[in-house]
Amino acid sequence: MTTSYYCLSFARNVAGAAKLENLKPSYTRHIHLPKIRASKVHPGSLSFVGDELRLKPSTFRHPFASLSSFAEAGGGEEEDNEHGRGKSSHEAPSKGDEDNSSGMAQAFNISSRTATAISVVIAFAALSFPLFMQSVSAGLDLKIRALSYATLLFGFYMAWNIGANDVANAMGTSVGSGALTLRQAVLTAAVLEFSGALLMGRHVTSTMQKGILVAEVFQGKDMLLFAGLLSALAAAGTWLQVASYYGWPVSTTHCIVGAMVGFGLVYGGTGAVFWSSIARVTSSWVISPALGALVSFLVYKCIRRFVYSAPNPGQAAAASAPIAVFVGVTGISFASFPLSQTPHIAILQALACGTVGAVLVNRVIRRQLGHLLDQAEPTPPAEKEEAHQTKNIGFLSDIAGPKGTQLEIVYGVFGYMQILSACFMSFAHGGNDVSNAIGPLSAALSILQGVASGSEIVIPLDVLAWGGFGIVAGLMMWGYRVIATIGKKITELTPTRGFAAEFAAASVVLFASKLGLPISATHTLVGAVMGVGFARGFNSVRAETVREIVASWAVTIPVGAFFAVLYTWILTKLLGYIL
What we know:
Layout: H1 3-9, H2 11-20, E1 30-32, E2 46-49, E3 52-55, H3 95-100, H4 103-108, H5 112-128, H6 134-137, H7 142-165, H8 168-177, H9 182-200, H10 222-245, H11 252-268, H12 275-308, H13 313-336, H14 343-375, H15 381-390, H16 404-433, H17 435-448, H18 461-489, H19 495-515, H20 521-536, H21 543-578
Parallel strand pairs: 1-3
Antiparallel strand pairs: 2-3
């Protein structure tokens, strides 16, 4: 067919493209389109270059290589004027699509055969690596070695599900905003999660010492306690897998808590549970999302008030980035890094880290976006006066976003900042949440090896690496499901919205942990994403998705408890035959 045919085929899409670009349809512009099928092109694939409407070559990738709602500079933030009611051009794989072909293959834009090969390699490694680990080879008795091998597999199953569900805390908003493609996010998170697990998770106490169960109740009942620990891993892993399948972001810590509570109540009585810990966990269902939503709402409103309404939004964004990085890096360094024990020296060290981070980010932004900053022109005074007459600009006012080069600069700046914050969160998550799998695993191994109950457990390096491998494996195989929920299904995200949500969630978790408040990172991030949506209008948040997520939170502890009791009963029967 001729090019003119395709021009006619795309006539309906011109209006859609003009809407995304906040332009009126104009048929006097020239249309340059290659000879491809009209059904393969979405309006988001069209953009004006000068007076010409062209197809963007970069958009001809598999739609699931990026779950982004960020189209390109020139369109996206203008959705705010309509409160984000429009749908994105990139949607997550539907259940029907995943039935027809591998969801993993769609997500990473690879063939189904390649996805199957990767899964087989991961399964083979999971079954064979434990045979060479010291925890298995050190046991002299064949039964103990077999139980150690099974224990490592239980721990891997839990770690796999942590990777499939919880890593979305770090990378979901970056993928949803388009700052990273799904493939880039998974590869980056894989390196950082594994590094964090290996470098930061060395000394972890057993689950029995974390204030969930009263350890004295199980004195002299080592095999029952061993069965309970394995059941907790299996129960939490089971519920996480169900939640990940449906794309529900749930707390891995709450899964473990629910499993241990169920085991303790049935096999130790009401006196075996620290009920104050349960009260703190349930209160976090309200405190975490509420604080996350409040802080992200304020952060996003600050961006719109002080960046979007500036005479030169691009310059304002470039100037604000080092300040935000300085505040964030200083706070993270002071709260998380092993600094000096002397308070004033530790503060100076944290300030130095923040200064270094701010200088580096400023140089990167100037190097990568300097040519755009030089070309960007301030908003014409006439347009500013007209905007100010129509809207009384205040902190809570609905301010229209920038356009053209200014929007490209703003998205570029906040895209870099969001990637940086995602890397910090991913590294910290690997070091912290690996304990949800490795803590009970190490406690169970210590029982098999005869370590005294109640003593602190130091996790061997190979076990830490094993947990990190499990997280990476789960992230690669199923992580895209929950990433799609956080990044796409709650509300539409752009780099500015994604940064506001991620920065708010990290800040709340950081300071709440220091103050001892019961905070869940998963719940906080979901609340932060909702807060960004509320800042654009209540209709911008998808109520159906929120209801599903809240329902999954409410049933996490009861379901974990039920599975733990069931699995403990089964394991005690099996251990009775084996031992």
